[in-house]
C-alpha cells in the first residue's frame, strides 16, 4: 500500500476546473445555448469510466457514448458552469491555453486518464493533434509546476509531452494519485 501524497489528486477537493485537464489532452469544449459541454474521445472504456467518475465528483453529469468508429467518448452534460472554461480555452473556434493555467493534481489526473501512456521508463501525456498551437504553452505550464517535459511527435498524429527522469516522474506520480481500479488502468498508469 502506498502512502497518500500531500499533493496528490486524492488530497484536493473536486472542482469543475479539474476538467480543464481534458482540454490539455485532445478534449474539446463547445458552447451550447447558455451552457457549454466538455468532451474527449479516449482509446479505452476504463478511461471513459474513470473520467465519468471525475465529472460526477465535480458536480456535473457525465455521458459515455461511442464515436462512429466505435471508440469511447466521454462528455459532460451542457452546464453554465463550463462557459467560463470555454471562454478561457478558445479564441473563436480555435482551442488555446489560458496564459495563467497551471495543471494541479486533479487537472493532471484528468489529463492522464484521457491520454496518458507509458513508454519504456518514460511517460507520455497526449496532446491534441488538431490544436498544435497549444503544445508549447502546455509544455511551459508543466515546467511551471516542476515537471519539465519534452515535446515529441509534433508533426505526426500523436503529439505528446514526454516525461522522463526519476525526479520528474516522481512528481507526476505523486500528483496523479492511485490508478483507477481496472487492471488495464494499472498497466497504463505512471510509475517509477
Automatic annotation (TrEMBL):
Highest taxon, organism lineage:
Bacteria
This chain belongs to the protein called Uncharacterized protein
**Organism from which the protein derives:** Mycobacterium deserti
